[in-house]
Amino acid sequence: MRLQSRTASILFFLTLTLAAVSQASIAQEKEIVLLNEYFYPIEKSDSSDYVYKSIITQINDSSSVEYIFTRKNQLIKNVRQAYNAEGKFFEKLTETYDQHGKLTSKKTTNLDNTMYHAAYYQDEQYLGEVIYKGPEQFETRKAGTADVLMLNANEFEPTPSTDKLLWQKHLMKKLRYPPHARTNRETGTVMLAVHVNSNGIKTKITIANPASVDESLAEEALRVARSYEGRFMTAVDLDGNPIDGILLVPIRFKLS
Asked: Which partner from 57, 120, 124, 229 sits 20 to 30 angstroms from 202, CA to CA?
């Protein structure tokens, strides 16, 4: 009886030890991913042209930490994903830094509904904060005032824009499913990067996520975007000055 008890204790200890080793190995798993200027992974064949380097550490099955560096190993962003403190939803905590390592923003995003709360800084001075409550609903507070504004865009993250209805009509009229992609049941979302200068002129359109979409889908998205004749509005900084910007536009290809 004593031998059985001792054997059971040893087996229990070994089980705990193996579980601990397994958890430790998970915690130490790291993945290095090379990114382009839009923070999307690039093809291995293009590794010499990377702009950023991402190092992802998997803490456990539901949480991870990601650090993003420039080619000169300057930390510009860190991202932590895990369940919130109450365990009610999955959230993403993002911090960004300028070229001097100073904090420029802190954002907490609810990954279940994409709503977020973000605070912004410049030279370590608080600029303001935004609570995103849904499409074109940005509750905004700025430093130096107690006013709360409900705006249709996040002024702390200025991007160009265009008429959404006109863009949708253009897609419905011009977009075609490439025969090659249809035959091979290729699907996915092509993310277009539309560069617009401070004069509102479209200077370049490219694919932000080429490594994750079929080439024929990407080519069709580019063809349609380049034929779009709608006007683009410039991005505007906090002082109201027009600036160069990039508008990321998703085009989804789906087969029934």
From this structure: 120
